[in-house]
C-alpha cells in the first residue's frame, strides 16, 4: 500500500484554494463530494443551512466488521481578510510549496488532515484492499470556537460542533471516530468541552467625579467582586475528579487507541505520545452522541512569521499512511 505524495499534495492544495471560513463552507463541501464520487464512495449530502453543508462519504464494507469514521472540519480559524493577515501568504486561500512544506489558509487546521483521509482511501483502493466494516469520511462545517452573542449573530458565528451535531443527528454515525485535529502526532485521550455564561452586574451608572460614597452602587466596581469570586471558584471545580475531562474522554485501552498506537509505530518506528487538549473539538459532540472519538493528527503548523500557516509534506504523507493502517485494523 503506497501513499501517492503528489496526489496528496494536489488534493490538499485544492482544498486550501477554496475559501471556507465559518458560515461559507458549502463550496468546499461540493468539491469534497465530487472527490468521494471519484473514489466510488456513497455520498450523503447534508444541507445544514443556506451556504453550509456537510459532505459524508461511505466506503461500504463486505460485512461483519466494525465501522470507522474519519472526521474533519472544513471551516478555518481565520478568514485571511483580517488586517494583520492580509499580507501573509500562508493565511490566504492559495496553496504553495516551499522547502518541503505546503502553505495556505487552513492547511494545518485542518484541511491537511482531510486530504490525508482522502489519500488513505485512495491508497487502500489502489492496493485492492477490501474491508469488512464501513469506512466513513465526514467533512463537516462549523467547528471553530465561536458562538452568537448580541449583534454578533449569523452563520459565521455558529461554530462549536454545529456541523458535527447535525451530522450525528441525521444518520452520520459509526462505531468509533478518528478526528484529525492537529495534535503533533500525539494521541489525545481527553478533550475540553465548552460552557458559555452571561454574567451581569446590576448597579448605577456613576460618573467617577460623583462616585465618592457610592462605590458600592457602581456596576463596574461591583463586577470586580464577581470576577474575584469566579477566580476563587475555578480551582475547586478543576480539582473535582468528575471534571477532569469535561468534554470527552476515551479509555487508554480502547481498540481505536491501540490501533493508532500500532499504526504509528509501524510508520514512525516509535509509539505516539499522549496529551490532553486545552481546546474544544468535535470529539465532545461525537462522544455525547455515543461515538467514541480520538483526536490524532498532523503538527499544529506553527506559523512562519513571514509566510504563515504550513505543514511538512513528509509529515502529511506519514499521517495519511497511518490513517490507512488504522482503517485496516479497525474495519478488518
How does this structure look, described?
This protein is of the alpha/beta class and 332 residues long. The chain folds into two domains: 5-195 and 246-331, Zn peptidases (Aminopeptidase, 3-Layer(aba) Sandwich), CATH 3.40.630; 196-244, no CATH class. The chain has helices at 5-16, 26-39, 107-126, 162-169, 219-239, 255-268, 283-288, 313-331; strands spanning 42-49, 52-59, 68-73, 96-98, 101-103, 135-140, 176-179, 187-192, 248-249, 274-280, 293-295, 310-312. The strands form three sheets. A six-stranded mixed β-sheet has the order 1-2-6-3-7-11, with helices on both faces. The protein has a three-stranded antiparallel β-sheet with strand order 4-5-12. α3 (107-126) packs across α8 (313-331) and α6 (255-268) crosses α8 (313-331). The protein is globular and about 80 Å long. The two termini are 15 Å apart.
Are there runs of 5+ residues with pLDDT below 50, and where? Answer: none
Mean pLDDT: 93
Kindly report how far apart the N and C termini lie.
15 Å
Oligomeric category: single chain
| Spatial extent as radius of gyration | 22 Å
Strand order of the largest sheet: 1-2-6-3-7-11
Total separate domains = 2
Helix content: 25-40%
User: Which fold name is given in CATH as the topology of the largest domain?
Assistant: Aminopeptidase
Q: DSSP helix count? A: 8
* CATH class identity of the largest domain: Alpha Beta
Q: Please state roughly what percent of the residues sit in beta strands, choosing from under 5%, 5-15%, 15-25%, 25-35%, 35-45% or over 45%.
A: 15-25%
Number of strands: 12
Order of helices and strands: HHEEEEEHEHEEHEHEHEEH
General form: globular
SSE-based structural type:
alpha/beta
CATH superfamily of the largest domain: Zn peptidases
CATH architecture of the largest domain: 3-Layer(aba) Sandwich
Main beta-sheet strand count, sense and barrel state: 6 strands, mixed
Amino acid at each position: 500500500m503506497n501513499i501517492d505524495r503528489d496526489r496528496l499534495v494536489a488534493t490538499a492544495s485544492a482544498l486550501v484554494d477554496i475559501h471556507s471560513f465559518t458560515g461559507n463552507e458549502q463550496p468546499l463541501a461540493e468539491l469534497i463530494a465530487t472527490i468521494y464520487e471519484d473514489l466510488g464512495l456513497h455520498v450523503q449530502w447534508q444541507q445544514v443551512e443556506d451556504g453550509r453543508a456537510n459532505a459524508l462519504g461511505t466506503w461500504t464494507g463486505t460485512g461483519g466488521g466494525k465501522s470507522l469514521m474519519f472526521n474533519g472540519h472544513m471551516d478555518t480559524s481565520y478568514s485571511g481578510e483580517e488586517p494583520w493577515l492580509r499580507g501573509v501568504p500562508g493565511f490566504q486561500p492559495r496553496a504553495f510549496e516551499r522547502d518541503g512544506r505546503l502553505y495556505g489558509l487552513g492547511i494545518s487546521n485542518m484541511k491537511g488532515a482531510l486530504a490525508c483521509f482522502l489519500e488513505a482511501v485512495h491508497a487502500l483502493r489502489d492496493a485492492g484492499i477490501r474491508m469488512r466494516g464501513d469506512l466513513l469520511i465526514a467533512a463537516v462545517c462549523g467547528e471553530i470556537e465561536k458562538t452568537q452573542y448580541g449583534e454578533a449573530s449569523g452563520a459565521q458565528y455558529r461554530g462549536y460542533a454545529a456541523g458535527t451535531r447535525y451530522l450525528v443527528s441525521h444518520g452520520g454515525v459509526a462505531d468509533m471516530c478518528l478526528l484529525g485535529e492537529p495534535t503533533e502526532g500525539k494521541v489525545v485521550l481527553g478533550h475540553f468541552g465548552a460552557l458559555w455564561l452571561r454574567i451581569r452586574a446590576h448597579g448605577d451608572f456613576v460618573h467617577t467625579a460623583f462616585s465618592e460614597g457610592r462605590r458600592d452602587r457602581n456596576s463596574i466596581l461591583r463586577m470586580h467582586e464577581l470576577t474575584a469570586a469566579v477566580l476563587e471558584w475555578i480551582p475547586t471545580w478543576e480539582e473535582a475528579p468528575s471534571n477532569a475531562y469535561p468534554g470527552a474522554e476515551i479509555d487508554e485501552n480502547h481498540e481505536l487507541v491501540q490501533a493508532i498506537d500500532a499504526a504509528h509505530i509501524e510508520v514512525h518506528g516509535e509509539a505516539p505520545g499522549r496529551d490532553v487538549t486545552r481546546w474544544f473539538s468535535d470529539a465532545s459532540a461525537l462522544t455525547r452522541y455515543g461515538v467514541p472519538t480520538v483526536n490524532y493528527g498532523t503538527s499544529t503548523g506553527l506559523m512562519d512569521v513571514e509566510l504563515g500557516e504550513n505543514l511538512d509534506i513528509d509529515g502529511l504523507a506519514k499521517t495519511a499512511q497511518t490513517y490507512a493502517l488504522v482503517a485496516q485494523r479497525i474495519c478488518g
